[in-house]
Amino acid sequence: MSRSTWTLLAILVLLIGIAVIVLQRPGERTSSDTSGAMLATFDSAAVDRIDLHSTDGTVALRKENGSWVLEAPLHYRADQSAVMALISKAHSIAVKNVVSSNAEKFPLFKVDSTGTSVRLSSGTATLASFIVGKPSSSFTETYVRKDGSSDVVLADGMFAYTFSRGANEWRDKTILTVKQDEIQSVRFAFGDTVFTVTRADSGWTVDGAKVSGSQIDRVMAALGGFAADGFIDTTFTPPKTPAATITVNGIDLRFYKETGNYSVQCSSTPQWFVVNDWKAQGVLKRKSELLPGPPS
After folding, report:
1. What is the pLDDT of residue 26?
2. For tag attachment on the chain, is the N or C end more exposed, with fewer CB atoms within 10 Å?
3. What is the structure's pLDDT at 296?
4. Taking a C-beta distance cutoff of 8 angstroms, is the pair 30, 154 a contact?
5. Residue 57 CB partners (closer than 8 Å, separation 6+)
């Protein structure tokens, strides 16, 4: 190779070295050793209580009659899949290496009071207790410290959100759950306009006319697991008349139009929900929208 080529290669190597140094945040340089050990070892099935504390507040989750409930800051059914994901992740956090044993550096890694404290228990016994800190500079690992330990470890993966959620994000957002094959009819009411879509051997019909298969399939899929985007926990006085009401298997879903969303009331629960406009439009179908269009 020519002298100019060697010069260019040398400059490239120098630039790569500078980039590595710059991207490495001060105080976060890690050792190259990896342990391959799990942060915590416990029986996942034995966990019956989870306590989380962060700068956003305290969340307590408890197993009640086989299901998880949010116990604090309010009592509500928990998002079962989110809780199980937390337990699974806590059980499988793989340690790569220790990055620091200096307590003065805890704030740097956010494994002090600025991180998320996690405690999993079985009865009165603590099964695992640790603090989830910030992600590494590569955003492929997370800093973690076991409770009572001075070792800050680098764990594989980005999983802070699995533990760091607000109380509402732990709540079960399900409004209606019904098996699609158990739905025989759906009643739609838009003010004085009322019609019922009925399942027949040949498909769905409305007023004797066959319904568009693709349209009704989307509506049924949405109704089968209709979920909220938020909750209304304050005193709420809705308009006297809902913008629309859908009745499925004897359960009424009442939609009250707001700016950009709907306030929704389900007859099977006293809880009020917030549903984004685009999601509501997935089930609020007029008769003309459900009928097949003219042949193209």
Report:
1. 45
2. C
3. 45
4. yes
5. 73, 166, 167
Which residues constitute the domain of residue 68?
A: 32-170
Domain count, the chain: 2
Q: Please tell me whether residues 117 and 180 are part of one structural domain.
A: no
Residue with structure tokens 């695992």? Answer: 128
Q: Are residues 41 and 88 in the same domain?
A: yes
Residues 163 and 190 in one domain: no
How many Å apart are CA 90 and CA 147, to the nearest integer?
Answer: 14
- Joined together, the tokens standing for residue 184 give 């025989």
* Residue that finishes a domain, picked among 170, 186, 213: 170
Distances (CA, A) of 279 to 58, 236, 264: 31, 21, 12
Separation between Cα atoms, residue 84 and residue 98, nearest integer Å: 28
Residues of the chain scoring pLDDT < 70: 1-35, 293-296
Q: Report if residue 227 sits inside a domain.
A: yes
Which pLDDT score, from 0 to 100, does residue 172 have?
97
Token couple for 228: 């909220």
Strand partners, 132: 116, 144
User: Helix or strand or coil: residue 14?
Assistant: helix
CB 229 within 8 A of CB 173: yes
Q: Quote the distance between the C-alpha of residue 41 and its chain's center.
A: 25
Q: What is the pLDDT of residue 19?
A: 43
- Are residue 164 and residue 180 in the same domain, yes or no? no
Distance in angstroms (rounded) separating the CA atoms of residues 61 and 257: 33
pLDDT tens digit sequence for 23-82 = 344 455 444 354 679 999 999 999 999 999 999 899 999 999 999 999 999 999 999 999
Q: What is the pTM of this model?
A: 0.80
